[in-house]
Amino acid sequence: MKTPIKNAAKLTPAILKAKQSGAQGRFPGTLRTMEDDIRALGLDPAKFLGQDIGRGGATGLGNRNTGAGEARRGVKGETGVPDAERTEIDHKRENKAFEPAAEVIALDGDSDEGLNERMRGGRRTKGKVSAIAPTEEDVHPESADHVDAANAVQKESDKAVRNAAVDHAAVVRSKGMKRRAPSPGEGGVAGAEGHATPSEKNSDRVPKKRKDAYEIHGKVAHPANAARVDADPPLDRLLRVQRETWGNVAPSLNSPVKRGKGKIEEVVGRGEAVVYWMRMQDMRVVDNHALSLAANQAAHTGLPLVVLFVLTPGDYKAHDRSPRRIDFCLRNLRLLKKLLDAKNIPLIVDTYTDNRFHLPQHLLTDILPRLKATHVFGNIEYEVDELRRDTEVVKLGAAADGTGKVKAVFVHDRLAVAPGVLKSGKGTPYAVYSPWQRQWAAYLNNNPENLEEYPEPAPNPAAIRQHPVYGELFQDGRWNVPDEVGGFQCRDRELMDKLWPVGTDKALQVLDKFLHGQARHEHLGLVDPLQQHQDPDDSSSRIKDYASSRNSCDGNSSSRMSPYLASGIVSARMVLNKAKALTGGKLESGRDSGIGIDFYNHVLAFAPRVSMGRPFLEQFSDVQWETDENKLQAWKDGRTGFPIVDAAQRQANIMGWMHNRPRMICASFLVKDLMLDWRLGERFFMESFIDGDLAANNGGWQWCASTGTDPQPYFRIFNPKSQSETASPDGAYIRYWVPELRGVSDKAIHDPYGKLTKSEFEKLGYPKPIVDHAKSRARALFRYKNVGEREE
Ligand SMILES: Cc1cc2nc3c(=O)[nH]c(=O)nc-3n(C[C@H](O)[C@H](O)[C@H](O)COP(=O)(O)OP(=O)(O)OC[C@H]3O[C@@H](n4cnc5c(N)ncnc54)[C@H](O)[C@@H]3O)c2cc1C
Q1: How many whole angstroms separate alpha carbon 289 and alpha carbon 410?
Q2: How close is the Cα of 658 to the center of ligand 1, in Å?
Q3: Helix segments in 342-432, DSSP class H
Q4: CA separation for the pair 104, 476 (Å, rounded)
Q5: How far apart are CA 500 and CA 522, in angstroms?
Q6: Closest CA to 569 of 501, 513, 503
Q7: What is the DSSP secondary structure assignment for residue 256, as one 8-state letter?
Q8: SS3 for 4?
Q9: Residue 599 backbone dihedrals phi, psi, to 5 degrees
Q10: 704 alpha carbon to ligand 1 midpoint, in Å?
Q11: Ligand 1 test: best mutation among 514, 660, 661, most atoms within 8 Å of CB?
């Protein structure tokens, strides 16, 4: 008689089939160890294992209090912030008699009276854990469309979009705040990516010493400020300023992307060079919109093309960039310098260490005049700070007198479908992934020109090398790529270099391995992605198997493209074109297609508050969080006693990357089991990952924290044990990353503490679970249901 398969209903069809057929493992091949793999890369395992080297600075807590410093500088040196603009967390913590009214945002149709009434309601009294009846624990994420819930999220979002301006006004009124006159910050240069701008922070009341669990304080904007930014999103503002200044050079937020391949009109004086300003998200020479526009303009005017990259450590600190991502950027820059050099195009790298908000002035008064450039082209970055910076560049460039004028043009490039193009039936932005993804695929299938790739730039004439100004750019050491950026020492650079080879060619080879090869056990961890198995035909292509294998991480089931996409080493168009070739020339819709790259950037564009530390669903802004430093540290280190969480966290620490499923499990665990603020986890991932990307990371965290675009309400709470059985059915992933558990049987691998005897468990040297999941779950349900309250 067949043994029944445990949790069969929760298993993906492929895993179920594998289990039913009695297969030992889901993926072929033999599992190796981390040590073997590091040795196979030609490196010494002792250098990379057993110590916290991943995030650059000292272990754990000490190295990242950038927000507070920023905030303090913001108040004393730059703007002077009215009390009302202090960050939410500071406000709560410092004012014991905190009035919940301050956090209330007007709802649809709220009159002043209605708003006041709700505000007078004050904090609710404490209650018991209520008998709320969540339908399913650990619903398989994305397992169904949940149409009603999706509609509810969409409705909330529509409401928020319609009322952002009203909300802001109401909050301002309700708090007796004065409406500030537009500050220079609003004009463009102030603002932490996401986080509070100097004028949005208040810091002179920030306590001198805080523990890590509180250290997000400088990164959370006041809701009124976030509502103000939502009411006039920085992307709209950039496009508007650009249009008003130079005419219709870039597509507006609401119209389809135009393939701006034509010549850019001359509306400024003709300079002596054309500049393409490369940033951290578009690091490639091929299929690059702004670069191809710049090259076109240079060819049209007979001027040389110069590529500029500005390293801005101030931004990297404020945005929690990982040393790994910075190092990856530098490694790519070195390669790009060579590639461009072969085309007689100088790549100049400037390191700007002054006040990060003054970068536009630096560009327009120092760098561009030195180059005698009157045109600068860039691809739009959708984060708040970056949009404000670019808006300021457009304004300053246009405001300069006479020959000092610079025409700055910023265009869409990063996404296959520009933000704002796709709208729900009601004409509002989509707030739920599945319907958005269906329309996205249909739109691209109907408008294939959006996937046309941009031409490579033509070389500069060789004579540029003799030019007194531009010839020097190839020689002058001032413009070289530095060995490292101060404050971002990447201590595992050698390992990162092996795991994440640089350049578009290599990235495309990695993609080919994914598209034309089967997932295997032995490639799940620390392996050179170029050494992955590739099959002679496409019958076992991982993209074809994506739907069934995407949730399992016992093998190398996903593409490992995220660092390349996050840094723009390949474009979304290039990846989609390759995927399309394997799916009959059409993009497939549906969550299992593995191609939903654009969604969270689209959210960022219409709800910029998400990059200001605010929840997408404001009604969860006052969920009560714990602040237990030890639990936070145990989570960071992978010592929680939950094998799947520990395996994943250790993967993050050693490899600088994680498969999507464990990212979700770890995020859910931090928020719903440890009841720690999702922003702490968001920051930790940014600091650790080589693919750290604000839109995807924030979107992922908010989804898992039920404050984001998940159509399932907050009672989606992952059970780490059953999630473990789904994510690592063979236990291979766990055994690889948690060596203490290597010898543990299949029966006990997901729950060694529960399944082994006391003495068997103690021999492992593995920690006991730091929480009881059932109790944690009840606590989370209570706190989400009763926002603002703690259970008795
Ligand atoms: C809490 C959390 C944090 C995350 N942080 C980041 C991050 O900082 N940077 C990042 O690039 N991705 C992030 N993701 C999304 C996703 O986990 C990674 O993109 C994916 O695991 C990378 O592996 P891959 O390239 O092999 O993905 P594949 O499964 O092969 O997918 C191909 C590409 O599609 C995109 N993609 C796939 N799934 C998602 C998703 N759920 N959300 C957004 N894009 C997706 C990525 O660009 C990815 O490279 C996060 C997800 C969660 C749940």
Answers
A1: 10
A2: 9
A3: 359-362, 368-371, 384-399
A4: 56
A5: 17
A6: 503
A7: P
A8: coil
A9: -55, -50
A10: 13
A11: 660
Q: How far is the CA of 346 from the centre of ligand 1 (A)?
A: 33
Q: Mutate which of 562, 664, 666 to test ligand 1's pocket (most atoms within 8 Å of Cβ)?
A: 562
CA of 562 to the centre of ligand 1 (A): 6
User: Residue 371: which of 404, 338, 339 has the closest Cα?
Assistant: 404
CA of 125 to the centre of ligand 1 (A): 40
The identity of residue 766, as a single letter, is Y
What's this model's pTM, rounded to 2 decimal places? 0.82
* Distance of CA 569 from the midpoint of ligand 1 (Å): 15
CA–CA distance, 627 with 105 (Å, rounded to integer): 26
CA of 660 to the centre of ligand 1 (A): 6
Q: What percent helix, strand, coil does the chain show, rounded to 5?
A: 50, 5, 45
- State the Cα–Cα distance between residues 48 and 471, nearest whole angstrom: 42
Q: Please provide the size of the chain in residues.
A: 792
Torsion of CA 515, 519, 520, 521, to 10 degrees: 130
Is residue 162 classed as helix, strand or coil in its secondary structure? helix
Order of all β-strands in the sheet with 347-351: 347-351, 305-311, 273-278, 373-379, 407-411
Q: What is the pLDDT of residues 622-670, one digit of tens each?
A: 999 999 999 999 999 999 999 999 999 999 999 999 999 999 999 999 9
Could you give the CA distance from residue 118 to residue 104 in angstroms, rounded to a whole number? 8
Instruction: Point out the ligand 1 atom lying closest to the alpha carbon of residue 514.
Output: 30
Contact (CB, 8 A) for 689 and 596:
no
Contact 72, 78 (CB under 8 A): no
> Whose C-alpha lies nearest to ligand 1, atom 21?
660
DSSP code string of 289-324: HHHHHHHHHHHHHT--EEEEEEE-HHHHHHTT--HH
Series of mean pLDDT values for 10-residue runs along the chain (792 residues): 55 49 60 93 92 46 27 26 32 29 25 29 31 33 39 57 44 36 28 37 39 63 93 96 79 34 54 94 97 91 95 96 98 98 98 97 95 95 97 93 84 93 91 89 92 94 95 94 96 97 97 84 90 72 67 86 97 91 75 66 95 94 93 97 98 96 97 97 97 96 93 87 93 96 96 97 98 97 95 84
Listed residue (672, 671, 663, 668) closest to 727, CA to CA: 663
Crossing angle of helices 643-655 and 678-688, in 10° steps, is 40
CA 103 vs CA 98, 114, 116, 195, 783: distances in Å: 10, 15, 12, 17, 17
The answer to whether ipTM exceeds 0.90 is yes
Q: Nearest to residue 726, comparing CAs of 6, 3, 61?
A: 6
| Residue nearest atom 52 of ligand 1, based on CA coordinates | 700
Cβ < 6 A, ligand 1 pocket: 550, 558-562, 565-566, 594, 597, 600, 659-660, 663-664, 667, 685, 689, 691-693, 696-697, 700-701, 704
Bridge partners of 305, per DSSP, are 274
